[in-house]
């Protein structure tokens, strides 16, 4: 087991964890920092006494009062290096919306790096190369927008050209996204087929987000994939790809 972090470092990391999640349990915090739950409760009291407005939700966990903002955290050099590596990986992704939005986000992150870190990350960036999709081909531009439709339960209309060369118009209820073999796949409830289907983003010719919302589906992605595993002997990539 890794050595316990110094308390100040742990308290700072806890603030970041609390700000990143809507509700975080004491066990999740304790497991992450490899300390006892009793220690976490003491740390929570310390943060409260220092003026951090932590809300305790009985039987669920902790959160930071809505609207409260913590000043930007400082990155370690290793964390900065990890971000630069992620930047190189994302640049070669085939979805244009992802690369554009990540570029915007990483620019803001770089702005809070210390000057010596900026020099080192720029140097590291020049010494990294990702050879997947080396030509940087972009085959879709819908990933980020579809992520919003999933979280907002928005109905979507697509013009779809399947791998079997069949064109169709669908109204779908976006459910989840996954990536395989450099392609992004949308799992959605198709109102035309009255069942869940998988749609490759690079096969979507046109997409329109409608004003109507749909009722959230009462299952997790893991439950859906487990259901697929029971229904098919192959991996879900093959049978679900037929829309």
Automatic annotation (TrEMBL):
InterPro entries found in the cross-reference section: CBASS_pafABC_assoc_protein (IPR051534), HTH_11 (IPR013196), WH-like_DNA-bd_sf (IPR036388), WH_DNA-bd_sf (IPR036390), WYL_dom (IPR026881)
Domain Helix-turn-helix type: 10-62
Occurrences of domain WYL (ranges): 143-209
SUPFAM superfamilies: Winged helix' DNA-binding domain
Protein name, as recorded: DeoR family transcriptional regulator
Organism listed in the record: Cyclobacterium marinum (strain ATCC 25205 / DSM 745 / LMG 13164 / NCIMB 1802)
């Amino acid at each position: 087991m890794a050595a316990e972090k110094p308390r100040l470092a742990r308290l700072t990391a806890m603030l970041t964890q609390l700000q990143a999640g809507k509700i975080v349990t004491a066990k999740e915090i304790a497991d992450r920092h490899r300390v006892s739950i009793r220690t976490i409760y003491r740390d929570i009291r310390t943060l409260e006494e220092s003026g951090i407005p932590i809300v305790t939700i009985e039987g669920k966990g902790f959160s930071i009062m809505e609207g409260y903002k913590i000043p930007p955290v400082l990155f370690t050099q290793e964390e900065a290096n990890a971000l630069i590596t992620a930047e190189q990986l994302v640049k070669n992704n085939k979805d244009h919306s992802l690369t554009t939005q990540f570029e915007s986000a990483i620019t803001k992150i770089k702005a809070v790096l210390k000057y010596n870190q900026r020099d080192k990350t720029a140097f590291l960036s020049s010494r990294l190369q990702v050879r997947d999709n080396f030509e940087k081909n972009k085959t879709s531009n819908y990933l980020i927008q579809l992520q919003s439709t999933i979280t907002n339960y928005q109905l979507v209309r697509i013009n779809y050209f399947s791998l079997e060369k069949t064109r169709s118009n669908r109204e779908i209820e976006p459910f989840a996204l996954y990536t395989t073999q450099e392609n992004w796949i949308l799992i959605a409830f198709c109102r035309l087929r009255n069942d869940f289907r998988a749609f490759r983003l690079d096969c979507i010719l046109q997409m329109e987000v409608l004003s109507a919302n749909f009722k959230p589906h009462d299952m997790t992605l893991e439950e859906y994939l487990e259901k697929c595993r029971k229904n098919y002997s192959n991996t879900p990539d093959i049978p679900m790809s037929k829309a």
